[in-house]
From TrEMBL:
Gene3D superfamilies documented for this protein: NAD(P)-binding Rossmann-like Domain
Source lineage: Bacteria, Pseudomonadati, Pseudomonadota, Alphaproteobacteria, Hyphomicrobiales
Keyword annotations from UniProtKB, A to Z: NADP, Oxidoreductase
Family annotation (SUPFAM superfamilies): NAD(P)-binding Rossmann-fold domains
A GO molecular function held by the record: oxidoreductase activity
InterPro entries: NAD(P)-bd_dom_sf, Sc_DH/Rdtase_CS, SDR_fam
Similarity comment text for this entry: Belongs to the short-chain dehydrogenases/reductases (SDR) family.
Coiled-coil regions listed: none
Species name: Rhodoplanes elegans
Domain of life: Bacteria
Name listed for the protein in its UniProt record: Short-chain dehydrogenase
Length: 253
């Protein structure tokens, strides 16, 4: 089945939808004919993005400021989207933050923050979407982990801890829920051009700059939707990440 056919008229929710991968997936879903409920903690960026997409796709875009660390925000997002569209076909738990820094620069508060966003944000989404998807007899749950959820990287202990957790959670649920028609995929990007690079980090540090091998977000979105439509488990985006794969596999020690 063509990707556009698969997503046409589907009700989709995306967290982290104001920027980067989430925004590009939202655009690709709209181009495929889906209705998209955009959620992000950055209310100003969300409003700008949603306004632009709604102008191009009238009647198919809704937006709600949501902090994925807050269970009640996520419950309102999932239930609101399902009520509006009558179904919840795709939940893309994508919101996340990066952290590349030496472990000694990290406080317990920083640990809690990244676990709250990158792991609890995904858990909240799954928790509130499952009863709805079970009632309607199926759906897609798509969680964003990272290449750093499949292999370790130095100076990424916090990030890897959360992304390995998301990958394990997703793969485990994939087996558990498949018989109910609920398909779970985990997206594991290498480097995708987005605002995640160069962001301020804990301890006054700044995250890595945009790597030269980063692939464009719309290219990543096309691969993600093709993977979800094909009910893939792990959707790795190695095209732009060959240096990462090579470094790990040629030097696993
Ligand atoms: P991005 O910074 O462009 O987008 C992330 C979005 O998440 C932002 O709009 C931000 O406001 C939102 N967000 C952050 N905290 C939130 C919260 N508490 N509640 C709701 N929204 C929140 O970055 P991106 O690269 O598009 O990242 C999307 C996902 O992809 C993340 O989970 C990230 O870890 C993952 N990822 C990205 C790359 C890459 O190379 N860009 C690689 C691997 C994994």
């Amino acid at each position: 089945m063509q990707v556009a056919e698969h997503f046409c008229d589907k009700g989709c929710v995306i967290t982290g939808a104001a920027s980067g991968i989430g925004l590009a997936v939202g655009e690709a879903l709209l181009a495929a004919g889906a209705a998209v409920f955009m959620a992000d903690v950055d209310a100003a960026a969300l409003e700008t993005a949603a306004h632009r997409l709604a102008a191009a796709h009238p009647g198919r875009v809704q937006a709600m400021p949501v902090d994925v660390t807050k269970a009640d925000d996520v419950r309102r997002m999932v239930e609101g989207a399902a009520a509006r569209h009558g179904r919840l076909d795709v939940l893309f738990n994508n919101a996340g933050i990066g952290a590349t820094q030496p472990i000694e620069t990290v406080t317990l508060d920083h640990w809690r923050r990244i676990v709250d966003i990158n792991l609890w944000g995904v858990v909240h989404g799954i928790h509130f979407a499952l009863p709805i998807m079970r009632r309607q007899g199926g759906g897609h749950i798509v969680n964003t982990a990272s290449m750093a959820g499949l292999m370790p990287f130095p100076f990424q202990a916090l990030y890897c801890a959360t992304k390995f957790a998301v990958a394990g959670l997703s793969e485990s649920l994939r087996f558990e829920l498949a018989d109910e028609g609920i398909h779970v995929s985990v997206v594991c990007p290498g480097h995708v051009a987005s605002a995640i690079f160069g962001k301020p980090l804990a301890g006054g540090l700044v995250d890595l700059p945009l790597p030269p091998d980063a692939i464009p977000a719309d290219e990543a979105a096309a691969t993600i939707l093709a993977g979800v439509a094909a009910r893939a488990g792990i959707i790795a985006l190695p095209e732009g990440s060959r240096t990462l794969w090579r470094r790990y596999w040629s030097d696993p020690e």
